[in-house]
Amino acid sequence: MSDTAPHTEDHHDEPHVVSFGLLAAVFAVLLVLTALTVGAWMVDLGPLNIAIAVGIAAVKASVVALYFMHLRWDNPFNGAVLCFSLVFVSLFIVFALVDTSQYQPSRTETGPTPFEQESGEALKNKTAE
Amino acid sequence: MSQADADHQHHDEHVAHHFESAGQQVSSGKLGMWVFLATEILMFGGLFVLYAVYRHNNPETFEYGHLLLETKWGAINTLVLIASSFTMAWGVRTAQLNKRKATSVLLTLTLLGGLGFMCIKYIEYSGKFSHGTGPGKFFDVVAYEKYYNKHQADHAHDHDAKGEAHDEPAEPAPVLHGTTRAAAIAPAVNFHSDIADPAAGPAGLVKLDPPKPKGFHIPWVHDKPTPAQVVQSRNFVDIYFAMTGLHGIHVLVGMGLIGWILSRNMRGHFSSKNYMAVDLVGLYWHLVDLIWIFLFPLLYLIHT
Q1: Residue B192: closest C-alpha in chain A
Q2: At what angle do helices B276-300 and A48-63 cross, to 10 degrees?
Q3: Are B188 and A116 a contacting pair at CB < 8 A?
Q4: Residues B227-245: pLDDT tens digits?
């Protein structure tokens, strides 16, 4: 009988059931943060706009990972795997940005691309007809 | 008693023979899923690098390009995906508590959320293609100009009603004809001297003024970028399609997986002792939600 199998061995592996109240609270927090990020977008805050947008997204993502994805009660190693991937993505982004800002001129300096040139001509020729 | 029988005594039917206990099987399965999710994040990471580098080098591409997107649809899709993430997490809870019917209902709702998300994406994508702002070869600035003129004519009335100062005359088409029209495009291309507007400065690409005044504004009635600005937004459109396209494929895969565990649940395959498949599909679905949480502000909520 499977029911008589010794489940006492499970000790710390016992699954955690998240209460409905907590799930609903997390859902409400996510809705509020979504409204907040749209609201912040309507106000001009200069370079802060993108920082706030990404910051709110990071908070939302943490809440989803901690509660919906159970990381808060999981084996911490699972959370570490997630954090490692995020660290490496961040390194990738930062190094790429540092690199590109060293020598890549903006298109504002290099002038139009061949595509932009062609599109401009296409619009111009249409007028001439 | 044979070795096989002895083994069987210590195992319930859902535990594979190489695991000591159900708990060990579940924690191994979860670890495996998290490693897979980490590789998913790294895959999307490449696209986020593309976004960061391109936006850093060409901010105007994003400022004009995001005006092509309907923030309304992006916001609704965010709510739809968050709601379906909630029903998924709730479904895992009911599966843990052995409530089979409730789990079926919640998985169905989650599936419907995914379907709603893809329907809205279809509306957005088909609009992009029909307005000449599709990816790659579907980008056609002459087709866009037609759409733009119609859009301006349709919305000219709105602007007048609100008493906004408006550069364009009530009838917008003439703006893009003759020398005025040339001036509109001049910043984007090297024009021959006979049509270049001297006010536009030296020939070549220059940064245009943002199309909207600074400060608080109602986002749903955004102006569309002019055809000249859209010429510079082509790479935004490509990045938009690459990022939301890869995400959309993940939504479709997630919907397939949810359909699979829904059908298994209805056939009674799961119980409070054996719900790992529900749990792991849930993790995948939450990751899809997580990625959209970043895509929405980065693509739809760019401040101009």
Answers
A1: A121
A2: 170
A3: yes
A4: 888 888 888 999 999 999 9
Chain A residue at shortest CA distance from B297 = A53
Say which of B48, B96, B204 has its CB closest to residue A93: B48
Q: How many CB atoms lie within 10 A of CB B50?
A: 17
* B20–A contact, CB cutoff 8 A: yes
Of the candidates A37, A54, A78, the beta carbon closest to that of B34 is on A78
> Which amino acid type is present at position A114?
P
- Please state, as a whole number, how many other Cβ atoms lie within 10 Å of the Cβ of residue B160: 11
Contact B188 A56 (CB under 8 A): no
A36 in a domain, yes or no?
A: yes
Domain total in chain A: 1
Domains defined along chain B, listed by start: 19-133+233-304 (1.20.120.80), 142-210+218-225 (no CATH)
Residues of the domain holding A95? 15-128
Cβ contacts of B161 within 8 Å, gap of 6 or more = none
Residues B180 and B176: their CA atoms lie apart, in Å, by 6
* Assembly ipTM: 0.80
Burial class (CB in 10 A: 0-12, 13-18, 19+), B168: middle
pLDDT on residue B227: 84
Task: Give buried/exposed letters for B64-101 (b at 16+ CB in 10 A, else e).
Answer: bbbbbbbbeebbebbebbbbbbbbbbbbbbbbbeeebe
Cβ pair B171, B187 in contact under 8 A: no
Low-confidence ranges of chain B (pLDDT < 70): 1-12, 156-222, 304
Contact A38 B48 (CB under 8 A): no
B188, two tokens: 């984007």
**Whether B182 contacts chain A with CB within 8 A:** yes
Spatial distance between the Cα atoms of B65 and B239, rounded to a whole number of angstroms? 10
In a domain, A57, yes or no: yes
Q: Which of B110, B128, B114, B117 is nearest to B77 (CA)?
A: B117
The whole-angstrom separation of Cα A60 and Cα A57 is 5
Kindly state whether residue A39 falls inside one of the protein's structural domains. Answer: yes
